[in-house]
Design brief:
Number of domains: 2
Radius of gyration: 19 Å
Oligomer: single chain
Number of helices: 10
Helix content: over 70%
Largest sheet: none
Order of helices and strands: HHHHHHHHHH
Length: 261
C-alpha cells in the first residue's frame, strides 16, 4: 500500500474513534451539535498526525499545523459560547431529528461516522505539502499563507460583527446588514471557504498538490448546497420573512459584492 494511502487509512481510524466519542457525548446530552466540535478537533488531529508521520520540511509542517490548530480553537470557542448562550441544540440538528423521527441515535451514529470520513478526505489537501522536502518556501506557499490570514481574519471579523449586532436589543428580529454582512449574506462561510482555497494554493507548490483542489470543491459544495447556506437561509426566511427577502434581493449570497440597487 502506498505510504500516502496508508496515512489516510490510519487518519480515518483515528477520526472514527474521535467521532465515536463525540457521538456518545451527543447521545448523553441530547445535543448533536457536538459533531461540530468533533469536526474541528478531528481536522486538527489529522494535521498533527501528518506532521509527525511525514518527513517533509519542518517549516511547512508547522505552518499548516499551527494554521489548522488556530482555526480549530477559534471554532471550538465559538461553539462553546453558542452552547452556553443558546442552551439548546442547534436548529439544524433539531430539523434533522424531526425529519428522522425514529431511531435517531442510531442514525446520528452514521452521521457522525460520515463526518469522520469527510474529515480524512478533506485533510488530504495537507499531505502533498507535508511530504515536500524542498528547503525553502515556494512563491505559491507564501501566497497561500497570506490568503489563509485574510480568510481567518475575515471570518473572525464577520462573526464579531454579527455577535455585536445581535447583542443590541433594538436589533431583535432584524437582519444584520452591517460591515461584511452588507456585501455578502454569508461572509463567515465565504472566508471559511477562502481558507481552504489557501490550503490548495499552498499545496500546488508540491508534487501531487492538485489533490487539494478536491477539498476546495467539496467545501464549496457543502457550504453552498448542503449544511451551510441552505439551512441558514431557510431559518432566516422563517424568522424574518419579508425583511430577509429584501436583503436577499440586494445582497450577494456568498461572494462579497457591491449592493445591488
Amino acid at each position: 500500500m502506498p505510504p500516502f494511502v496508508a496515512l489516510m487509512f490510519q487518519a480515518w481510524g483515528l477520526a472514527a474513534v474521535l467521532m465515536l466519542v463525540f457521538w456518545l457525548i451527543a447521545v448523553k446530552s441530547r445535543n448533536a451539535g457536538w459533531v461540530d466540535v468533533g469536526w474541528a478537533l478531528g481536522l486538527a488531529m489529522c494535521v498533527w498526525f501528518y506532521t509527525f508521520s511525514t518527513d517533509g520540511l519542518a517549516l511547512r509542517h508547522w505552518l499548516l499545523a499551527l494554521a489548522v490548530s488556530l482555526w480549530a480553537l477559534r471554532l471550538v470557542n465559538h461553539l462553546r459560547v453558542r452552547f452556553v448562550t443558546e442552551g439548546h441544540e442547534d436548529r439544524r440538528y433539531q430539523k434533522i431529528r424531526a425529519d428522522w423521527k425514529t431511531n435517531q441515535d442510531f442514525k446520528f451514529f452514521f452521521f457522525f461516522q460520515f463526518q469522520a470520513l469527510l474529515i480524512v478526505i478533506l485533510s488530504t489537501c495537507w499531505l502533498p505539502s507535508m511530504r515536500n522536502a524542498q528547503p525553502s518556501l515556494h512563491f505559491l506557499e507564501i501566497v497561500g499563507v497570506l490568503l489563509w490570514v485574510i480568510g481567518f481574519l475575515g471570518e473572525s471579523i464577520a462573526d464579531h460583527q454579527l455577535k455585536s449586532f445581535k447583542s443590541k436589543l433594538s436589533n431583535r428580529g432584524k437582519t444584520c446588514q452591517e460591515g461584511l454582512w452588507k456585501y455578502s449574506r454569508h461572509p463567515n462561510y465565504f472566508f471559511e471557504w477562502l481558507m481552504w482555497v489557501a490550503y490548495a494554493v499552498f499545496a500546488l507548490a508540491s508534487l501531487g498538490g492538485w489533490i487539494a483542489l478536491v477539498s476546495v470543491v467539496l467545501m464549496y459544495y457543502f457550504l453552498m448546497h448542503v449544511s451551510g447556506v441552505p439551512m441558514a437561509e431557510e431559518q432566516s426566511l422563517k424568522s424574518r420573512g419579508d425583511e430577509y427577502r429584501r436583503y436577499q434581493s440586494v445582497t450577494s449570497v456568498f461572494f462579497p459584492m457591491p449592493v445591488r440597487e
